[in-house]
């Protein structure tokens, strides 16, 4: 996970403690240019997130106007 590669970020174990499972009621695929990012968008939509914060503008900017 890229977030775990950040020297100032959480370790994988620390991230796992904070993570919450998200039940997917529906899938919004394909919406992103990178299929590996689809699970992030699906989790945010299904959890009804107020925001999705990412440094990966390239893959998420195309979907931003749809939601």
Q: Would you write up a description of this structure?
A:
With 67 residues, the chain is mainly α. The protein has a domain at 22-67. It has helices at residues 2-5, 12-18, 38-46, 57-64.
Multimeric state? single chain
Distance between the termini: 25 Å
Rounded radius of gyration (Å) = 13 Å
> What's the overall average pLDDT, rounded?
79
Q: So how many helices? A: 4
What's the SSE pattern? HHHH
Q: Tell me the strand percentage band.
A: under 5%
Indicate the percent of residues in helices.
Answer: 40-55%
The largest sheet is: none
The beta-strand count equals 0
Class from secondary-structure proportions: mainly alpha
What overall form do the CA principal axes indicate?
globular
Residue windows where pLDDT falls under 50 for at least 5 positions: none
Give the helix/strand layout:
Blueprint: H1 2-5, H2 12-18, H3 38-46, H4 57-64
Task: Please name the defining characteristics of this protein.
67 residues, mainly alpha, 0% strand, globular
Quick structural overview:
The protein has helices at 2-5, 12-18, 38-46, 57-64. The chain is an all-alpha fold. The protein has a domain at 22-67.
